[in-house]
## 1
Amino acid sequence: MSIAPEDLPEPPGAIAAPNFELGDEHNRLLDELTRNARSRFAHGAMQRDLDGCWPADGFSRLAEMGVLGASVPQQYGGAGLDLFSAGLVGQAIGRVDPSVSTSWQSHDNLCVNNLYQNGNEFQRRKYLPGLTDGSHVGAIGMTEPNAGSDALGGMATTAVRDGDAYLLNGSKTYITNGPIADVVLVYAKTAPDLGKKGISAFIVERAFGGFSSSPPFDKMGIRASPTGALYFDDCRVPAENLIGEENKGVAVMMSGLDIERAFCSMMVLGMSERAVELSVEYAKSRQQFGQRIGDFQMIQSKLAEMYVALETMRGLVYRALAKANAVGAGEGGRGEIHKLSAAAFMYAGEACMRICDEAVQIHGGYGFMRETEVNQLYRSAKIQEIGGGTKEIRRLIIAREMLAE
């Protein structure tokens, strides 16, 4: 059957094609953030990684940058940025020091943004000022020794009401900023018999009796970002520190995880950008057989593959975070954002690992040396396939959402 020309729809005319790149304002913000991050954190980054040592004034430097509480309104001491613009902070710092970016993200997105989105006005006014001026460090307590991928079903930490307070008992592990955190958003079971539906969220201060933490763990990568365990032994938490309603913590957790995956992908993008930049610089300067190695087709092939992976990552990550921008408190954990944020973090983590692997290969023996920046990036890339839900869990989320449609 043929279609006559008159049966075709009218051409749309001069409609602008969608732009999948940052606009001028976002580009200026990213450039300014990158310059600020370099001036404050580039010096000594390698030694901090080798020593596994967080700078004592790290959060003071972040406060000087104006990036603490990036997505929190100015009335609470934040920068008042939308979530997408705040994500550019993670990308910028990720270009300079993945350890600093990791600790900033745990503080600013997992703790501060979560507290702002889900806390009441009393809690916001009590805790946000200290968290946004750098005097207090934030963290989130979710993972447990026997509850990693099964964070909900395997959770053993409990909170029992005792008068005007709750008594927390249990432990959390692999907690970014755990050894130095002053304020932790902790998930615990308030009704164990209800399983996943009996979880609540609490704001726990280091000053509360019965709360302690381990020294920093010795990690393969992002070594300067302190990671440790948290312990609760009849830790008395005022009832006013319950976030939202009792037994309604899953909604807080799941919406936070969706935003976390989209948000953390931005740091992965920044790390990947730096790995590609270092590889191009080395390919231009390294001489072998009388010519620069960038003139060899094998090296050119590697650089081309790295570029494709980086630009694919950029488009998916920006799209996911833009989508997360519109997610309200308690709205995550299902639907398109649940699938898209998992996809963005899954692809970003795996692509970053490939990019950093090729970067080390291009650098050869030099890249195998522990004290080089490309080696630091390689070691720090692996956690991007594990933290925030392993890449296997991310695949399950995507598939389940597809099958539910």
## 2
Amino acid sequence: MNTGISSDRSVREAYETDASGLHLLPDLVARPETIDDVVEVVKRAATDRMPVTCAGAQTSTTAASISDKGLLLSLRGLASIGDVDTAARSIRVGPGALLGEIKRATAAAGLLFAPDPTSEEESTIGGAIACNASGARTYKYGATRKHVRALRVVLANGDIAEFRRTELEKNTVGYAFAHDPIDWFIGSEGTLGIIVEAELSLLPLPARVVGLAIPFEVESDALDFVITARESSRVVPRCIEFFDSLALGIARQSEETVRWPEGSSAVVYVEEEISADLDEALGSWIELLEGTPTAMEPLVFDGEARLRLARRFRHSVPATMNERGGKLRGAGGRKLSTDWAVPYRKLGNAITSARELATSRGIEQPVIYGHAGNGHPHQNFLARDPREVTTIEEVIEETLRVVLSLGGTVAAEHGIGKIKRRWLPLQMNPLQVSMMTAVKRELDPLGILAPGNIL
């Protein structure tokens, strides 16, 4: 048995940071290679009452995958990808498998794993399940939760438990939250158990997908078009994404092969799975745009190579902001990001309020982009020093209060982690928090799993 536990400082430093920009140095690092190794680590930790925080590829923006308390458990070694069961439309994978590799394996069998975080080449399925990740196609397919059929979980005492989603269409036995225990672990950010294997549900692979990047001269027209596209009966998009002028500026610099028209200040990017003629599908979108005077000629992304190009320019925005934030670390600064959401019709109002709050506090405007079809943008701020970190955090909290007043949520995609824990009580009342605390206490009575995440 090889639990791979190390106290070497150079090893620990390799696991001290994630995409949040924070740095937390663990006391120990474990790098297990098998499920039995994980069981052994957890049993030893329970005996010693040592905290255990799981990590995959450490792409968390909320510091969920780092800790300065106890042991950091890297699950990258459990990266198995099983054979695709084409009859059952499923696949079994280890938590350390990268999403991009899983998607390629399923596509080779003519099937689709629908969740598509932009960082799919850098993030693991265990992390995606732990924070219930989504992505651009969430608009059509929903987040990761509904695509997880079964889980093997190592509990806080070292026992292995298996949870499988029921296929019932009706069930009135007991409280609703107890019907499918599998859902306790999806989105729990490692606080209730350690996922060591997952069975994923797959869908038929679309025959053809086309992407359209639609530039607009006026941002408000772009946001209005998001509503138009969502409510139209003529088009069936699988994603509706938005990029403001700052995000578009990053995309211009990162992918110079994409010829963005001069005068464009915002972009709406959509994808549609088509079975009809391409010209017919494009014609429906053009007709939809006819009532928008500042809309410019769409850029078409047809075929795998062009769709990969579209993914690259979309991914360039968070990747560039992460890089810029990393350069500010020496001065005590970093990138700060949000992932709030509001009902989609209120997105324009929420963005306007967020910008006004930033201006009122004298900070630079954030880069705004993301999943507008679900009313879910990302705001990426850059703080140059600790003073700006504090100011930006205050602006974020003020923005979240506006978001909640519009019927929104403080976190729509990346979970709560450690960074957003302070804002959980803004949305959840004491009874809700008490219920979560009770579940945590039942499954992790010693409180050793992922201390500081969520609660």
